[in-house]
């Protein structure tokens, strides 16, 4: 069944809202909660679980991209029409901004609230592990490329039906386990944009990298898949 563009945009908005609110919310509200904080592992699982649950809830309507880089990569991979790209990206960015706005209202809803980095992405002094721009760029390109390869492979016709969302969610969990210390993990320009609008001023000045690197990585991953792994 072919859904209307409005339904697809709505699903992408809702899915990206859930990814940003669930993943970034776990980092802002729960990661360092006194004595019971969930830490890097918990935040990584939260991001993976948002994609896993969102894929099954919204994927049947829109395909479950929730990420401008994924949408671009799927165009390159021949799985998505370029004519639909602008609408998807707009819905994804708006969903992430809405989620960050709701999260900001919650995080500032107590006396003396300090939102800290607000789950924003950064490099150099703003990297959790103080990794420089080159390390951040390589990390985001490589991990987004791998993410696209997994997405294309897990959703191929030859793959086991119904398990794609699980593979993709677990892949995003692993990506976060690797890269939170480097960039606080983007691999998703929309997820980076929402918190940057409400977080510290530096986040907006460094946001360009978290658009350029994931999109470059998505294109690279799709090309690798098409050349080396695509079905005949």
UniProtKB/TrEMBL annotation:
Translocase listed as a keyword: no
Transmembrane portions of the chain: 12-32, 38-58, 85-107, 131-153, 160-182, 208-229
Cross-referenced SUPFAM superfamilies: Aquaporin-like (SSF81338)
InterPro entries per UniProt: Aquaporin-like, Aquaporin_transptr, MIP, MIP_CS
Localization per record: Cell membrane
Membrane topology: Multi-pass membrane protein
Pfam families: MIP (PF00230)
Signal peptide: none
Keywords, sorted A to Z: Cell membrane, Membrane, Transmembrane, Transmembrane helix, Transport
Predominant cellular place of this UniProt entry's protein: membrane
UniProt family annotation: Belongs to the MIP/aquaporin (TC 1.A.8) family.
NCBIfam families: MIP, PRK05420.1
Protein name: Aquaporin Z
Species assigned in the record: Variovorax humicola
Gene name per UniProt: aqpZ
């Amino acid at each position: 069944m072919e859904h209307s563009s409005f339904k697809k945009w709505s699903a992408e908005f809702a899915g990206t809202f859930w990814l940003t609110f669930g993943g970034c919310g776990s980092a802002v509200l729960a990661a360092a909660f006194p004595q019971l904080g969930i830490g890097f592992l918990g935040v990584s699982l939260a991001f993976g679980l948002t994609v896993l649950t969102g894929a099954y809830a919204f994927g049947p309507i829109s395909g479950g991209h929730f990420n401008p880089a994924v949408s671009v990569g799927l165009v390159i991979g021949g799985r998505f029409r370029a004519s639909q790209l602008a609408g998807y990206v707009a819905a994804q960015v708006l969903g992430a901004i809405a989620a960050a706005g709701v999260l900001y209202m919650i995080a500032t809803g107590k006396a003396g609230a300090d939102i800290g980095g607000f789950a924003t992405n950064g490099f150099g002094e703003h990297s959790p592990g103080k990794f420089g721009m080159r390390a951040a760029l390589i990390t985001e390109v490589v991990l987004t490329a791998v993410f696209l390869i997994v997405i294309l492979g897990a959703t191929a016709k030859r793959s086991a039906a119904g398990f794609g969302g699980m593979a993709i969610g677990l892949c995003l969990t692993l990506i976060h386990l690797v890269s939170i210390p480097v960039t606080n993990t983007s691999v998703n320009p929309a997820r980076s944009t929402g918190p940057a609008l409400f977080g510290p001023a530096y986040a907006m000045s460094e946001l360009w990298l978290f658009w350029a690197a994931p999109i470059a990585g998505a294109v690279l991953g799709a090309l690798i898949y098409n050349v080396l792994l695509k079905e005949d």
